[in-house]
């Protein structure tokens, strides 16, 4: 019975969302890709906000979030000129229903990599899934595609849409050059297009983030945002929480927190960011690699690369034993194997050096962001795996012991209910009835 009620409610929600979408005169923009889509969507929304009212939905990127955006949240924010939605693929045929509901005027695709291995198996299957967003464009719609990725560029074939490309290749409509980043120096780049050359300075600590930056910039320029506004907004955009986020502790370490996801293709990019950093002391903490739970080789390859650039490499979680680290590295402290985020936090607390750079890299299941949060908050939730996909900051309960979460949430909901009743006068009615 509960499943039937849930199904009926879902259908009703989709119906209301579809009606709301049909009445809107906003420009709808969908952003997808194996990596970089959250940053590209958030940055694009940040840029467009200088050009008019915008609603941006990132991180929560499944169809329920889209339905809520369309029929509820978007309207609460008032009239909007642009809606930016990040569309995530969690399995075969998950983007198509979102694309049909969103009916985008613009589709942005960042890259195609082998993700959600159990569902997709091949790059071609991933590309087919992402293409559903492009195929949903109306005649004359705009597709913004990565020219450096053949699987993405292939989405331009057979389309009825206008296509613009971005990338480092000379043939890209928005060609990226002169990318530089060496922490603490942040990413700078040039974008050359038919309108000239745009010099951009960002707050991103890594060079590889040129890609979502270019995707957002190309889209904003195509939508008519003046170049000077684009450059100014790019310069003020801060990295998303737990996505290459920088946390500097006064008289303590500098954390690079990249704990939202860890597909294999992103591991070397994160390690390269540490390699280029201009700091004396470096450490790397590696947790779960996405989609490679049982792969010994991937963890060994990552360790061999990380040990060349960091003074110490810490492996944490159920796969920590897969590093292949030799006994000499273990005995000399070059490699440390731990089981829980709490153990990592305690270890770093005891050994931290002011000004050292510490990369926290893992998929979201371990919530390694707690290691950095513990320097600025009283973290009390140290359960190794809580089952929540959202980051600790989104959950907001990291200062409450895990076993008290349920009671805390119930108490918070009751408080909100009573506040609403007081505002509406319902509390007096309840008292009279009792």
TrEMBL record:
It holds the Pfam family Mur_ligase_M. Keywords: ATP-binding, Ligase, Nucleotide-binding. The keyword ATP-binding applies. Residues 31-219 form the Mur ligase central domain. The keyword Nucleotide-binding applies. It comes from the Bacteria. GO terms for molecular function: ligase activity. InterPro entries: Mur-like_cat_sf (IPR036565), Mur_ligase_C_dom_sf (IPR036615), Mur_ligase_cen (IPR013221), MurCDEF_CellWall_CoF430Synth (IPR051046). This is Mur ligase family protein. It comes from Mesorhizobium abyssinicae.
């Amino acid at each position: 019975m509960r499943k039937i009620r849930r199904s009926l409610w879902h259908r009703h929600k989709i119906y209301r969302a579809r009606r709301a979408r049909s009445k809107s005169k906003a420009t709808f923009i969908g952003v997808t890709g194996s990596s970089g889509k959250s940053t590209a969507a958030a940055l694009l929304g940040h840029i467009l906000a200088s050009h008019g009212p915008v609603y941006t939905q990132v991180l929560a990127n499944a169809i329920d979030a889209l339905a809520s955006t369309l029929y509820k949240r978007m309207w609460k924010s008032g009239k909007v000129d642009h809606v930016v939605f990040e569309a995530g693929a969690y399995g075969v045929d998950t983007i198509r229903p979102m694309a049909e509901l969103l009916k985008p005027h613009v589709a942005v695709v960042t890259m195609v990599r082998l993700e959600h291995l159990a569902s997709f198996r091949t790059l071609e299957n991933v590309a087919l899934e992402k293409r559903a967003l492009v195929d949903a464009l109306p005649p004359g719609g705009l597709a913004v595609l990565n020219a450096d990725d053949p699987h993405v560029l292939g989405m331009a074939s057979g389309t009825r849409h206008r296509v613009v490309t971005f990338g480092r290749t000379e043939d890209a409509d928005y060609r990226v050059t002169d990318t530089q980043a060496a922490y603490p120096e942040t990413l700078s780049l040039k974008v050359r297009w038919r309108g000239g050359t745009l010099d951009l300075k960002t707050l991103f600590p890594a060079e590889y983030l040129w890609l979502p930056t270019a995707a957002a910039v190309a889209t904003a320029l195509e939508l008519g945002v003046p170049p000077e506004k684009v450059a100014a907004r790019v310069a003020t955009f801060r990295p998303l929480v737990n996505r290459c986020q920088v946390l500097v502790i006064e008289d303590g370490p500098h954390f690079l927190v990249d704990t939202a996801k860890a597909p294999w293709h992103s591991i070397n990019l994160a390690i390269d960011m540490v390699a280029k950093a201009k700091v004396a002391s470096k450490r790397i903490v590696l947790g779960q690699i996405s989609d490679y739970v049982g792969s010994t080789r991937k963890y060994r390859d990552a360790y061999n690369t990380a040990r060349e650039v960091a003074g110490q490499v810490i492996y944490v979680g159920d796969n920590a034993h897969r590093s292949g680290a030799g006994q000499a590295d273990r005995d000399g402290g070059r490699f440390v194997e731990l089981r829980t985020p709490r153990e990592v936090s305690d270890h770093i607390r005891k050994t931290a050096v002011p000004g050292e750079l510490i990369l926290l890299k893992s998929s979201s299941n371990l919530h390694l962001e707690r290691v950095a949060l513990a320097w600025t908050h009283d973290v009390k939730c140290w359960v190794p795996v809580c089952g929540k996909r959202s980051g600790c900051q989104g959950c907001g309960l990291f200062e409450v012991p895990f076993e008290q979460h349920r009671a805390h949430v119930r108490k918070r909901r009751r408080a909100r209910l009573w506040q609403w009743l007081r505002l509406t006068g319902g509390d007096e009615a309840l008292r009279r009835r009792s």
